[in-house]
Design goal:
alpha+beta, three-stranded antiparallel β-sheet
């Protein structure tokens, strides 16, 4: 069994309004040195297989089909044996 940690982020060329809003709020709180705020998401899931290659393939397919909008987002993942 494997645990996958998937990180999904907007591509650098895509405007991130949530990140901009957080950057402005941080500046208002006195953190003016913080910039370039981008917001993403982390997804954790388990794959019930003993085959690491099969687990990687399943996670990659799930990301491409559902978990990430590959037109606007990039994803990466790590697998951890449980």
């Amino acid at each position: 069994m494997y645990k996958a940690i998937i990180t999904v982020k907007l591509r650098p060329s895509i405007l991130d309004p949530e990140g901009k809003a957080l950057e402005h709020a941080l500046s208002s709180l006195g953190y003016a040195s913080i910039s370039g705020v981008r917001v993403g998401k982390e997804i954790e899931l388990r794959i019930d297989t003993a085959d690491k290659v099969a687990a990687e393939q399943q996670v990659d397919e799930a990301c491409n089909k559902l978990l990430a909008n590959t037109v606007m987002e990039d994803y990466s993942f790590t697998l951890h044996e449980m």
